[in-house]
Amino acid sequence: MKWVCSSLHVVPKSSLTIVLWHTSGASAWKNRSHSLRINSRSISLYSLSEYMNEMKQTERTSLDPSSLETIETSRNFGRNFYLLGMSNVDKNSPVCVTGASGFIATHVVEQLLERGYKVNGTVRDLKDMESKYKYLFDLPNSENLTLFKANLNEDESYDEAVEGCDVVIHTASPYVLTVQDPKKDLVDPAVKGTKNVLNSCKKHSVKQVVLTSSVAAITDSPINDKVYTEEDWNTESNLGRNPYYYSKTLAEKAAWKFVEDLPEEEKMKLVVINPFCVIGPAHN
């Protein structure tokens, strides 16, 4: 399953919400609704202007997702508004969130804790963690949060955090605006890190992995009026042109290949989310 979206809107004290916006030129996607097909499902998209109008009239905190495996329509909106949730996950098993100190990940951790899940979060360094990650430990139910040190470039680095988990939410990925060596600083950590996480998942029989990819893996230069689907891949980026886009493309492809190559008895479910612009309040 692959979710293609052009914005992921995070709202405090509410569900992690995916708002599907159009990915073409700015003048187009700000003011028009479009359709998108995901896994043969026809999906209505909000334009930005429609979304903002709805937001003025709707209580966001009433939204509540139901299942990672179910596409749901919120009753609070006239058009389709799709949410992802975690209600089918065994709460006796911790959920691993890689890159737990990141923007999206922190909101994911917060919502998991609010729903009564135990969370194994990975960070790059545990030194002075009480002060460095105070915003995580200040979250409600943070007694159910355990942090583990992990490095995208180190083999077996995620083993301890993943052990005992049925679900792993992989958000960790290098994001560097200025790099001297795009391959070393962006591409290699993104691809190797994804493989390292998946190898740990395989070793510990994880049932489902949610990968935060990006619309950058779908297109480098969006074409007006083109409807993008899970069949589209970015074929233009390289080490010299948008290396971050290139890293996200290769990392996602590596994830799909890894899962496809698993023997049937070791299969895990992979869900990929492809956000574009991520907006909302930060915890740190």
From TrEMBL:
Read off the InterPro entries from this record.
3Beta_OHSteriod_DH/Estase (IPR002225), NAD(P)-bd_dom_sf (IPR036291), NAD(P)_dehydrat-like (IPR050425)
Q: Which SUPFAM superfamilies does the UniProt entry name for this protein?
A: NAD(P)-binding Rossmann-fold domains
Query: Record's superkingdom?
Result: Eukaryota
Which UniProt keyword terms apply here?
A: Oxidoreductase
Q: Where is the 3-beta hydroxysteroid dehydrogenase/isomerase domain?
A: 97-282
Is Transcription among the key words of this record? no
A biological process from GO: steroid biosynthetic process
Q: Which Pfam family is one of this chain's hits?
A: 3Beta_HSD
**Gene3D superfamilies assigned:** NAD(P)-binding Rossmann-like Domain (3.40.50.720)
Q: Does the keyword Ligase apply?
A: no
Q: Which GO molecular function annotations are given, in alphabetical order?
A: oxidoreductase activity, acting on the CH-OH group of donors, NAD or NADP as acceptor
The record ties this protein, via PANTHER family, to: NAD DEPENDENT EPIMERASE/DEHYDRATASE, STEROL-4-ALPHA-CARBOXYLATE 3-DEHYDROGENASE, DECARBOXYLATING
This chain belongs to which protein, by name? 3-beta hydroxysteroid dehydrogenase/isomerase domain-containing protein
Q: Which organism is it from?
A: Vannella robusta
